[in-house]
Write a structure and sequence with these properties.
Blueprint lengths: L1 H6 L10 H11 L5 E4 L6 H8 L3 E6 L2 H14 L4 E4 L14 E6 L21 H18 E9 L14 H10 L2
Parallel strand pairs: 1-2, 1-4, 2-3, 4-5
Helix pairs in contact: 2-3, 5-6
Amino acid sequence: MLAEKKKMGLSGTSIFDPVLCEVIYNWYCMDGGIVFDPFAGGSVRGVVAEKLGRHYIGIDLSQRQVDANQITADRLGVCPAWHCDDSRNMDQYLEDESADLVFSCPPYHDLEKYSTHPLDLSNMNYEDFCEAYADIIAKACRKLKKERFAVFVVGDIRDSKGAYRDFVGLTKRLFMEQ
């Protein structure tokens, strides 16, 4: 299947919808606000935030992805801040209660494989994935100022045998625990 996608010029990974970014930023983050993205895998959320007058801070585990994001941002004349690191180290990049919006699209466990890096959530067994995901959500929520919003774009997933995982329910539960 991936070989067929590559023949058609598709990479096999998804691209985030810039119109959704625009709607979320305009509804949930004021002009000049800080957007924090703990799963900053693509350039779209950062570029759109900056184009709309928000300041974007994102973390991604892949230096290759961070470099590609920066090339896109440079070409478009915007300056999002991308950091190559494990999102669990977000305290190094952003103070608690400093973000106006947490906006991200996390990995859907192993639905897409992003790298072979051992800290990549897409390489973890589901229990370890859930533990790391919970830690990242808890830390990200601490970055929000009072009376601000967090938006994660998620869908449901299945395990390798087709059993339903309820990733949407997990995400909602983890945010409600904060």
